Amino acid sequence: MMVTVKAGTVFGDLQRELAPYRQKVALDPFWPDEATVGGVIAANDSGPKRLGYGAARDSVIGLRIVYPNGTVIRSGGKVVKNVAGYDMNKLFIGAMGTLGVLSEVTLKLRPLAKYESVVLLSFPSGDVQSIHSFAVSFLDTMMEPICFELLTPTLAERLTGRPVYTLVIGFEDVEKAVHYQEQWVERLCPKAASMAVLAGEEAEAFWRTFYTIAPNGRLTTSGGGVEAAVKIGVVNLDVLSVLRESELIADRCHVQIEAHGGLG
Questions:
Q1: What's the structural domain count of the chain?
Q2: Partners of 120 in beta bridges
Q3: 3-state secondary structure string, 109-155?
Q4: What is the pLDDT of residues 162-190, one digit of tens each?
Q5: Which of 35, 62, 72, 152 has its CA at 20 to 30 Å from residue 180's CA atom?
Q6: What is the pLDDT of residues 8-54, one digit of tens each?
Q7: Which CATH number characterizes residue 159's domain?
Q8: Could you report the per-residue pLDDT of 96-107, keeping only the tens digit for each?
């Protein structure tokens, strides 16, 4: 139910070590084969599956921290049920290492999903109101997606080959439950939208590509241009207007913007 690792452990290596035991850390940071566990926790990083998994702070049970003066302290514990005293973990998670250096992390584990699929809903008309209406209808159902992410046409072209607004809906469960939810999406799907389902290796390949779209400081950019990632916090359905505005900014300012946001 839990694992304790050094902060410098590469996140992808940890997941591969846990896989034979049918376990995983329920986080989905970008560049998992380069990001370290300590870095993910210090940045409180997460990806589109935060809707189902929660953020880094939801997975951390305990920390060992080194203060600037060399003092070593521990927060939390090494058991899942640990509620005594103040939750000091949350003070250091997302602090970007400014309060102390993380040296050891204890994390909760979850079982690997029996089956996974990714539903792609493409909206060729670009009608934002149609996407909004579908999102509201879907969120009113009892479906339990692990992600409900909207991609701008620019990013959708890179990931799916189609330059149109695309909703990415992820499901993880037993196979029968996943197919049941896919059928629900199909019934709710607007006539103007088209639906495709990625399962098994196709779904894994999609996520592998997705988690490398963000700029990586260790890699040099082609052409010497500047790349930046901006994280914006808004109410879920306001994501639509933010993504629409990002498209307009890209046109006006002659820059390339690949944007996505969680409608969940």
A1: 2
A2: 168, 196
A3: CEECCCEEEEEEEEECCCCHHHHHHHHHHHHCCCCCCCEEEEECHHH
A4: 999 999 999 999 999 999 999 999 999 88
A5: 152
A6: 999 999 999 999 999 999 999 999 999 999 999 999 988 999 999 98
A7: 3.30.70
A8: 989 999 999 999
Residues 70 and 165 in one domain: no
* Cβ(170)–Cβ(144) below 8 Å: no
Torsion 230-232-236-240 (CA) sign: negative
**Residue ranges making up the domain that contains 97:** 2-111
Clarify whether residues 30 and 118 are in a common domain: no
Same domain, 236 and 167: yes
pTM for this prediction = 0.88
Average pLDDT, the chain: 90
One domain, residues 88 and 75: yes
Same domain, 145 and 263: yes
> What is the dihedral angle through the alpha carbons of 34, 243, 230, 62, rounded to the nearest 10 degrees?
-60
Tokens of 210: 């997705």
